[in-house]
Request: fold
Amino acid sequence: MPLLAKNVTHLVLAIAAILILGTVVLIAIAIARRLQRDSHFRRLDALRQEYGPTLADLLTGQLDYRAGLETLRRIGGWNRLYWLKRLCLDTAPTPAQLPILRRLSEDLGLVEAWQRDLGGRFHEESFRDSLSRPGGLLRRIGPLSFLVRADSAENLRLVRHTASWPLLVEALDDPHPDVQKVAARALACLREPESFPALVAELHAKVAAPASTQLSLRSVKAALVSFPLRQAVDLLPSLQHSHPRVRFLATDIIREMVEREASSRADFVLAPNVFPPELTEIFLARLWWDENPDVRARAAPVISYLPKGAHSRTLPTTVVLIALLNDSQWFVRLHAVRALAKPRYAAKASEIAERLTDPNWRVREAAVRTLVMLGHEGLDRLLEHLVSTDDRYSQEQIVEEMERTGVIHTLLADYANGSGARVGRAIDKLVSMGKTSHLMAILQNGAAEPVRARFLEDFGHHPDPQIQDWVKATAKD
Reply:
């Protein structure tokens, strides 16, 4: 027993000594890390104070480029690239500053280092630079080494270094998905035409074998959509692909490109110099009746921006859109109705009005909104349906949209001017439906005297409580 007690005592003392030694080591590491961080940020603050004004003047063009470059080259030391990167990229550059910043990054050797790091090639100077930041060694040679490649791709994106696009394309096959995602985002930002086919190939591969790459389909699609519309011609083979999902994605990418271009112009039409005849023909001759309803749905918005006599060997644009308006799938009809919400299609208000009785409520709702946007032609069809239908749900949809868009203000003004029996019947329908809250709000808040007088004459004796309250208040005034 004494021997056993002695051995247990020695074991306990050994364990205690190990625990104390481990605690001391951890404390020492924490103190060393804190000292390293303090030294790191003191150095960074000193460099910002000394060279920040020079960099600012250089980027704004207030300092000669050569003089500014030589000044920044004075930053020395074994971790110079890291400090230069922090100085140049800690603040997001403006579009006007980008050309100078890109040239500066090249002349200071930053771009070369980022390119090497992105490719995973060892370089002594950039390796030393990684040691200047806390945890830098782990970032380069440990399990977090992918962060160096991702950071390099992001830096090339920030300076818009177009010539690096081949490396970024290679990075789409990087072992780590984060690097792939950053590379795709960088390619979307650079918009180098030669990189577009590589992204299209990535799209095809992702559809054919979803597990073959860790890069998400959403990232690839977002990158492709970022390219200018003139690049859409490279999607022509994808629009004719045998796989229905490839055709859908290609059509949807072009749709987003077109709608981005159209967002800045109300009268936007796809001119031949922007949208070549080959693309026009495939949309009007094939995609609108594609076996995949998703393709047909996404084709409708694109077709709506084509000239009305777009292609001599295909059906006219309006004929195709009306066919989509009567498609067997409700969501295709929905996209077609929305696509027709342009003043140039006001003459098709009658065909659009037929969707007010569509079996699907979302299509009916879209038809109401489209008719409101078509001006007089659309409003006439809308009012005609409002006063003639017995479908309460359809009436509610119409009134709600008229209230939301302010159409009732216009309706009351036309009503006071005696613009027609249809307008009068529409006002009567609103009152009979009990939709008087909005009417009373307009009459009480700034409605013209002719409007108030006409309404009082026609509905002054109506039993609706809100109308009677308004009549009493008007009488007191």
Notes: Residues 2-59 form the longest helix (58 residues). DSSP finds 27 helices and no strands in the chain.
